Amino acid sequence: MKIGYNAKFLFGRSGIETYSREIIKGVLEQFSDIEINLITSFNRKDNIVDYFGNKPNMNVLNVLPHDLIIGNIGRPLVRKYDELIYKKKAKDLDLIHFTHSFGFPKIENSITTIHDLFPLYYDCGVDKDYFKKCIDDTLSSSRAVIVPTQNVKEDILKYYDYDESRINVIYEAANPVFRMKETNYDLSKKFNLPESDFFLYVGRYEERKNIERIVSAYSKLRSDIREKHKLVLVANGRDEDLVGLSNHIANNDSKNIYHLTGLDIDDLIQFYNNCKVFVFPSFFEGFGLPIIEAMQCGAPVITSTTSCLPEVAGDAAVLVDPYSTEELHSAMEKIVSDDSLHSELKLASINRAKKFSWANAAKETVRVYKKYSK
Question: For the whole model, what pTM was predicted?
Answer without folding.
Answer: 0.91
